[in-house]
Fold this protein.
Amino acid sequence: MNPGESGTDGGNGGDAVALSNADVTSNEAYATGGNGGDGGVGVLPGGSQGAGGNGGGASATATTVNPGGGATASARATGGTGGNAGFVGELGAGGGAGGAATASASTEAAGGNADSRSEAYGGTGGAGYGVGHVGGEGGIATAFADAVQNSADGGVYAQAWQFGGAGGIGFAGADGGSGAESVMTNATTATGLAFNTTLNSYGAGGAGGDTAGGGNGGRGGDATTVLSFSKDGDSQTFNSARADATGGTGGSTNDGGLGGQGGNAGVDLDMVASGLDHWLTATGTATGGASGRSTSGNGLAGGSATSSVSVMSEKSERRWFQYDSASSSAFGGKGGDASGPGFAGGVGGTASASASAVSDGYAAATASQIGGAGGDGRNGARGGDGAASIMTNAVAATSPFGINLAQNAYGGAGGASDSQGGRGGDATSSLTLDMGTAASDVFASVYAAGGAGGTTFGNPLSIDGDGGDATALVDVTALNTTSATVYAQARGGSAGNVFYSGGSDEADGSATANARLTMGADNAYGAVSANAYSGTACLGCGSNTGNSADALAEVVGATGGYAAANSTSAGSSGYVEANSYATVASPATAVTHSSVGTAVTPGVFGLLAGTAVSKAVLAPTGPDFGTATQTFGYGLFEAAYGGIGETAGQYRGSASFSFLTTLGEGLYLDFLTSRALETAFDTLTFSLTLGALNLNETFSDLASFQSFFDADHFLGNGDGGFQTVFVSYTYTSLFQGSGFGFDYRLANGPRVEVNPVPLPGGFVLLLGALLSGVLMARGRKAARGDGALLRAA
């Protein structure tokens, strides 16, 4: 070649076709397209390189028909790789596109299994060269599987996987090629009389091409998977379907340029059955692609993910033993990394998941969505924020026998950084359910977890990321239901770790969990639990700012059965739990409220008929509790007789406190206020356990409790570790209108070095301390005020 001549373009790869349909029980077909030729080299000066040739296409088809038994067919097709642009020349050139791939498998059986499997892989694009040019696009992949079963004793399996081809690399200023998208619409089908049916459709977008020497990364391919299934007839069948979609990863850059966007992912799965006995199980998962690394700008947001799954089974007869379920999950893609001061990693991709189930047997619906993590920051760039995850009534179910609902939201983690970590994403899971006239059993659960803050490293001035807040709320009304369980849990995200001396620690995420159940049927049994845990302190540093945790659980209107409520909270200062339980003939209510680090006003009693209340607060705040180190915990118990028709009005409650003490302090029980209605109670039992200390006191009148109430109670000295105090109460009364409540605190005070004198029930009276006036110096009675015992007629 002479100077100034350009290289020629590479030739296209050859196509490949494979067919297999022999009259046997099993057939396989494989096809691979030829690779495209590389572009020619240009002669300098003036000559330009040639473009790469396209990869060849591939088509594989396998078909098996067996009228006397099982049949298997497998097909796999792989597109050819696109050719690279010539690497020498002045103007540059583009890479060749990856070859397309199509795979199809089909079976027909009469007994045994009809098993069809297909795989399709799009070819990778060729490398591009030079500014203004692009790596080749990834090849399109298409997979299809069909199975027919002509015997009621046989099974059916139809499974298809397709992977879009990756984009080609960009060199010397060329952009990376785009990954191929994946689109699957009813790519797996099954028909006939099969006793057992399994469908599986999986599609993935191709990765975007990376770059070297400048240029922007290629975009990851989107992925969409749609699958519908229907079944009818009166024979019993078991049917499951799964649909998955994964967005392609965006291309990354090394020497300047922006990373490619991660591909989005979407799933839509629907199963319908009519007839006698058809069990349905549907599972859908969508995963957004991670965005690529940027080296001269902010990282891009991660790919989004959306998943919707539903089942509907209408049986000719109601079947209590049948179970139909829908499960849906969505994962947002990770944000792209960033490099350099003034830049930030990309935010995590958003996620959305929903599930519904309608059945004449039992119905279950589960939806989980996970926000994408923020991209990392390097060389002075800030970490990206994790995506928030917000779910509101994302699950639904209908059944004459029972429903099971689970709704889970997770905030994305903040990106790591050597300057400032990204913030964890907030998470909110809120579910409101009204059962109307339905009498089916209910289990409803909501969960929320804030994302962890981004970790920092390698810089004495670095700042870790805050943990995300978490809120879990569930409110169920089931007036005709006889058995219901409701559960809410929230976990705040932990602040990031700092792996360098002198770095700054940020706040853990707060947590709030509220669960409420309203009932009205005779002989109703209701149980509610709410748990809140603030984010934990960072590993090895211990100086993160703890945040509040608050849990509220209540059961209202359980009649002739029981109402039980539980709440727990945990934070950097310890753990606290409250329980209440009412078992009566008339409508009963049980309420618990536990929290960490929240404000408290003592002496607030409701004393509502038929209600048991237990509250427990660790490290309470407010003017009645002094500084944070003066009061370890606060508790309240109250109960009021529910009225006419009860043969035994019994209400129970408990509280558990776990907290850290030091060697220089003592632990005291201070009763604060109380309130009585009418005769107050028939019997009241108060129990307290702390290590070897085991108190159990029963009171049959108000005067005996008053005497106990007014005494000073020393529990022991701190031992420099965690102490766990368990307090329980049992209240009984048969007098209409009676009720009683009291509150107390667990407080620190002077350490006492004299030998204690045991008193009945396990409490001790420190004679030496009293003589020296130590207890009086604590000012306990001044703290709670005179006239602590209140009486209401």
The two ends are 112 Å apart (CA to CA). Helices lie at 702-710, 767-772, 774-778, 780-784. The chain has a mean pLDDT of 86. The first helix runs from residue 702 to 710.
